[in-house]
Amino acid sequence: MMLKDLAKQAGIAPAQAHAYLVSFRKQGLIEQEAQAGQYRLGPFALELGITRMRSFDPLRMATEGAINLATETGMTVAVVTWGSFGPTVIQVHERGDQINMNTRAGTVCSVSGTASGRVFAAFMPEGLIRESVKNERKEDNMSQRIGKSQFLSKTTIAEIRRNGFATIEDRPVPSLGAISAPVFDHVGQMQLAITLIGPEKVLDTSVGSPFVEALLSATNALSYQLGFDARHTKPGGTAIGAINRD
Fold this sequence. Notes:
- There is one protein chain.
- The protein folds into two domains: 3-55, Orthogonal Bundle (Arc Repressor Mutant, subunit A), CATH 1.10.10.10; 58-225, Beta-Lactamase (2-Layer Sandwich).
- Helix content is 40%, strand content 17%.
- The protein has helices at 3-10, 14-27, 43-55, 58-73, 115-123, 126-138, 154-163, 210-225, and strands spanning 30-32, 39-41, 76-83, 86-93, 176-184, 190-199.
- The protein starts with a helix and ends in a 21-residue tail after the last helix.
């Protein structure tokens, strides 16, 4: 950027901005192109970024975020990652009086039959999702997977991507509702999902509800901590076509 544009973005006078830039340049935080005169981040800024990437622990951050979300909402919060058999719960943080709760660490979720699975379906690569759904259908009735394979349309996938979260009407446990939202890393790849679980009569899963807003606030904060910038980075994954039972 040019000096005048940087000053405008910072809300300060060009002369004051120049004084800052001189100091930043000495530290290696920025550098200036010789011909165009534009400023850009310097080598020390890269070192800071690399140090940050080496030092943070995504799982620790997710744990802290999930605990805070459970306390704020009074609902159970699950942290879900993509495992060998599909969406897999790795943590469960319970709050309030939960009944008929059968989600625990190690639980594998149906891709199309759970809120957690559907959010992965919307933001993970199409080929991976199709293969996972195919494997689900091969399983017998003794499978320990939560949720049954359901029809998942392209329209539903598009809606999840547009809203930023997934829910499901035909719930695995009729008395419990769920809302799940993705967490992205610095390149826009989905790393995990955070899922709110609670009594269907209490947990409002509609767009704009306090529970949805609390969940999105938590996942957006986690994504930001992992380096995701929604202004410049598009979430990875491809919206898939209809996934049928047949």
